[in-house]
User: Fold these one by one.
Assistant:
Number 1:
Amino acid sequence: MRVLIVDDERNIRTSLKKYLGLEHIESVDVENGEAALNALLNEQFDAVILDLKLPGINGQEVLQWMQTHGIPSPVIMISAHGQINDAVNALKCGAQDYLVKPFDPAELVIKLRSLAEKEQDKKQNNTLEPTANAAQKENAVIGNAPAMRLLSRQIDRIAATDVTILITGESGTGKEISAREIHARGLLPSAPFVAVNIGGIHEGLIESELFGHEKGAFTGATSRKIGLFELAGRGTLFLDEIGEMPMPLQVKLLRVLQERKIRRLGGIADISVNARIISATNRNLELMIKEGKFREDLYYRLNVFRLELPPLRERAEDIPLFCEFLLKKLGSRMGRTAPALSGEALDRLLSYSFPGNIRELENILERALIYSEGAVIKAADLGDLAINVPVKDFPSSLELIEKKAVQEALERCRGNRTKAAQVLGISRKTLLNKIRLYGLH
């Protein structure tokens, strides 16, 4: 068993490390949250002993970061007597157990071994997904049309390299899904995949999000913040909507790609970064270069290898496959058995141009699931597919309801977008897109 000890008190780290050694438990100790993130990015641990109060990045933030980045190591939170309520809240946020200082190290060992047994049982109970189902899942993401089979072969060739990739295609064609597929087929699939929508971040905050900042770097910077380049570690950083990046930051991104180093806002030291960079856009970057809106030198740095995703209308043979996959996913989310499509319904979908691509198909099927009754989706359940009208021009009552729900959630959460997304049951990225769609601030 291998354990990570995170505590800012040296005597606690030393005594725990010594006691665990006597119990034949290997351990690594670090003194702050930042060091913990680095250790978790580069090494594997069977459990984490995490102090709640740490300088800079605290224990709660480390726990949240672990969940965001899919790091499965179970966590035992340790806290002082007056912090019990905080420790209980940590349990609600994903910690497996907690101990109050001062605690008996023998009790800690019992808890660690109990966690190890539970993890072992979980591994034994998990059966491998049948090969046919795995292939079906992959094909549902990639598709069987000739253009998508070519794309799959290209992904196979580049996944095992660290080449910088630019993914282009219309909105809704699955650019992030393709980026995740590249990461999953790569050399380090268990490393973090960090995605950021450049167009969804306020211009003044992009630099801090990407590169991080030091305490006191600007008004409101009350603690050090680790940027996304660092959080990605040796994994993948996906820069979606790269065409929305402001010109001043394009220069800084170019420097990162050239030197593989970043500097936090307010910092004085360069930090090496190792993440693979995948960017994506639905804009014409070549035209933007001619218009002086995008740097040509940055374009060539990003466009080392290019993947172009065809629109759904050019791969209609994939529509039945996507429908099957999406109906299963949506049915599971709604707690109902996925219905089948009637022949007439499928014909209507096959004859539709899908200006919103796969994302629009998913929205159509979700609406059809709400309207449908029984085990079959009929053509009438799909609504009117003959009119391709932008939502912003002719908002329906459903869209007005959605806009109001988003607005009320933002007001309830006092503008905190992460909390508002949780209230609405959607991802933060989806919320940012809806804020832009409806012009909310």
Number 2:
Amino acid sequence: MQSVNMKPIDNILSIQNLSKVYKSGHKALTDINLEIERGEILALLGPNGAGKTTLISIICGIVNASSGRVIVDGLDFQKNMQEVKKRIGLVPQELMVHSFETVWDTVSFTRGLYGKPKNPAHIEKTLKSLSLWDKKDKNIITLSGGMKRRVLIAKALSHEPSILFLDEPTAGVDVELRKDMWNLVHDLRRSGVTVILTTHYIEEAEEMADRIAVINKGEILLVENKKDLMQKLGKKSLILELRKPVKSIPKSLQSYDLELKKEGTELHFTYNTHEGHTGITGLLEDLKKAKISFKDLNTAQSTLEEIFVQLVREST
């Protein structure tokens, strides 16, 4: 029996048994099932060719699926295509903007394409949030690559979508713009917008995402809360700074997961934090028996990048 205090999960996007096979026979996506909650930030991670862009393109109506369903805010995409598209904003990888239009005109025009009435106040707010207000009368051709990227985001937000897709949003942009965009995404989430981003920058997922989905070879490997994923798959390293360098790990210590680094001056011991017995006590005793002394020790947590690489390697 469900508790009366339990809040039901509100899924704004439901992807059901979605597959895409091209005429060449290439399977871009295989039986994708994914539920995305309203107001969350989901990072879709995967190597080149994993199927990230294909998946987004199908959800946004750019590419047709071979089979499966996409439900957006309770509406079947195929049966309610025009209504669903009004609820979705997409920032593509390519800098596709009309070069000779002004920033104001192109963003306002995009809003009109979705059947939305004119709303200068919303356009102004959007441009100011992206540091584009002082560029509003500039022709896009005169802008830098980073500013053009901001224009793409403004266009995607012009019709006030409830779901925003960011396909590699910070590829090729400087660190300052990347941080500005992180702040913008957090602001959007606070306003109730659901954000799905694909990225090659693992630190981007660590900084922004609530959940992580890992895709490889057209299949979803896992979908996890970011913190849970770090705890489940993350390992810790005990880093021992040795008093004297050693050339190799003695046989008496080879049962431990050890690695010599920095020309034998550091000994790294990898262990699982969720196992009752980490092996640290035994290692320290065996180091003493082997007459290996250390002057300092530290611990380091596995990064999301290391976890991602491990997952992809296991799936190949």
Number 3:
Amino acid sequence: MSDKKNNYTTISFRGGGFQFKNNYWISPTVFIVLLLLWHFGSTLGFISNLVLPKPTEVLIAFHDLYVTGDLYLHVGASLKRLILGWTLGTIIGIIIGFAIGLFALVRAGLAPIVAAIFPIPKIALLPLFIIWFGIGELSKINLILFGTLFPTIIATYGAIDNVDRSLIRLGQSFNLSWFSITRKIVFTASLPAILSNMRITAAIAIILIVAAELIAAEKGIGAYIQMAGSLFAIDRLLAGIIILSCMGLIANWLIGLTERKLLKWRNL
């Protein structure tokens, strides 16, 4: 009997599920390696400067942006549009998504409309938005709002549909009110999917603001990229693209920080 016991392997229980190690050093290492490959490829002539300028030339373009003050001008204009449009689209989308997920009448009326409008490429609506709201800030903010709204609605009511019904029955067995069940069970259980969707909508918002600024803007990262492309200034164009990438990384980091704060219960 003792021999059989010795053959068993003990596996420690991990209530939080699979635990991934945070190897923070890997990302900087990969970035540095790619940067060195880019530098040596451009220096040794393997990469043409007409196709991809040296990293030092892009750095000089950043320096010129900073010295002239254009960096704050363009980034500030894009950030204002992004924050307003994305925030409003996310808030309204969550409210409508919860209404569709919780009320059958609202679902019957709005779900088909959302399904019909969602596949439309939102950038195709920019000319219509310019006619409706003018060529100023309102058309760009509303484009981002519109592009953020529908993915958020679908992700929200989809998350509500996937809430474990046994949890709701458990709340009902404790005589919790409808509002308490919605707040403590439905909202908490759907929050991970809603936050994950925010990463996607943040990327969508950046894509839409660049597309809008390429067409109808004097200030903004999209307008800066458009100007650099028309002048065939590849170093400035790459500087603008890197700024957009940094904006996406910062948005992703902020949403990840929010997830760690709000979803601590997942690791219990």
Number 4:
Amino acid sequence: MISRVGFVGLGAMGEPMAAALRRAGFDVTASVHRRRDALERLRALSVNEAADPAAVAAASDAVVLCVPDAPQVEDALLGPRGVARGAKPGLLAIDMSTISPVASRDFAQKLAGRGLDFVDAPVSGGPVRAREGTLTIMAGGSSEAFARAEPVLRAMGNPYHLGPVGMGETVKLVNQIIIANVMIANVEGLVFAKQAGADLGAVRAVLASATASNYLLTEWLPKTWLAGTFDGGFALDLLRKDLAAALDAARASTCPMPATGLAFQLYTASSAQGDGALDYSAIAKSYERNGKQTVADRSGQSPGVQ
């Protein structure tokens, strides 16, 4: 049974996830990846500090990773100061980053050659649900590896075993493909409505009970673009990174994804305009520029809200 859990990657998601593990009673050890301040806050919760991922692994039965992309996962796992350097045989690596499933399968194979198990377990839910411990967790790995990982994952949210290594990342990328394209559809439709002179409050009220109703339109956009802000949320550049991973996996399986390819280019253009750190609803800014329409109510009240 796993009682000692290491954590690498204490960013906006990783810090509250590590805190959730500690609240669940695990003995948690972490190292600084980019943020010393996050580790200091976790030390106040009795999280142990180690010098690097190798030292984290030496003190742990399982190590969770939550870093930006595949190169950082590779360095944290297989680099000169990586998990594999300090791990004892049988250690379980749980990668909760969002990367290409092609990369996940490669890491799993390399770790297996060193006697280490691997589960890919990306998440959905954002920092708020990470703090609550209610993330949706999509896991890929052998049945045996998932059984070992499940108590750790349950401390952070609701895990779903979706198949072999890489399938967790695959399903997470399905989520990212859909939200990227649905966001563009919402923005395009609302700018079209605004340019035609429609009352956006009435448009949104009708769509809420029509077949076009979707979570982003009813819940996300009223807190971001339609409220005149792109602060917080999910960074456009992170979504763009996820789309690149999805396209990488699609190429490997010869699966055509023309809509996602176009979405990637649109988000890339928005990033080039300096919007990469903003919530991904900032894709609306390019539509507003092109349509010469300002949809958001800059008073801070969403259109149609009384």
